[in-house]
Amino acid sequence: xxxxxxxxxxxxxxxxxxxxxxxxxxxxxxxxxxxxxxxxxxxxxxxxxxxxxxxxxxxxxxxxxxxxxxxxxxxxxxxxxxxxxxxxxxxxxxxxxxxxxxxxxxxxxxxxxxxxxxxxxxxxxxxxxxxxxxxxxxxxxxxxxxxxxxxxxxxxxxxxxxxxxxxxxxxxxxxxxxxxxxxxxxxxxxxxxxxxxxxxxxxxxxxxxxxxxxxxxxxxxxxxxxxxxxxxxxxxxxxxxxxxxxxxxxxxxxxxxxxxxxxxxxxxxxxxxxxxxxxxxxxxxxxxx
Length: 289
Known about the structure:
The chain is α+β, with helices and mostly antiparallel strands and 289 residues long. The protein contains eight helices and 15 strands.
């Protein structure tokens, strides 16, 4: 059975490499890796065609913040993920969605804020009961406890070529085929690259095509997949992330340091009296609209 699954996944990778085309927005560098070190390999020009071989975000490959693995002239390289868009793209995501110019804000699951409100890390277990059960069943004696694992915060990323979703115990990733707009929402035609979402209403397999809808609501971002709400995310700053990590690891936090999110209409789902919010009381660090 495992061999059959491996063959299916290998076939998907083969056909995907010859599937969605991406182009470079500007000239940049390409890097290779020997598994330990990353090193400069060559330059790539503007409007060059490449394939994305893994819908996975890498850190620290070069001067840029986020990298992705591509196939270019039959060779695998790492390059700046922000420099890639599908050839057929109609619109690009705004800076307020991609957060590409932010050194502070990242999209985290709103479940973390439910946990902060109650000042109890066990709240997240009730939010994703299937994912928690599967984590516990797969955990070996060498693995961290669930709360320590989740303290290594994994943000959700929205790029014009790759979307990676992190919902605590659940996660998935997509290769972007096209982006269009419907009023203020973004519609993303995408291909499922990886899917581990035991708490989702629907289930998808690698290679399935889906329609994602990204809807911003103040400091919140709602993500729908084929009409079903897949997850809600909150724009979270570094100080708040520090308290989330503290609550996860030690079950204690300082609520006075939390920046509570607000919806576009100014309402707040939590007690926000002790701090300001991104939308109305903070300078926008992204430079977007």
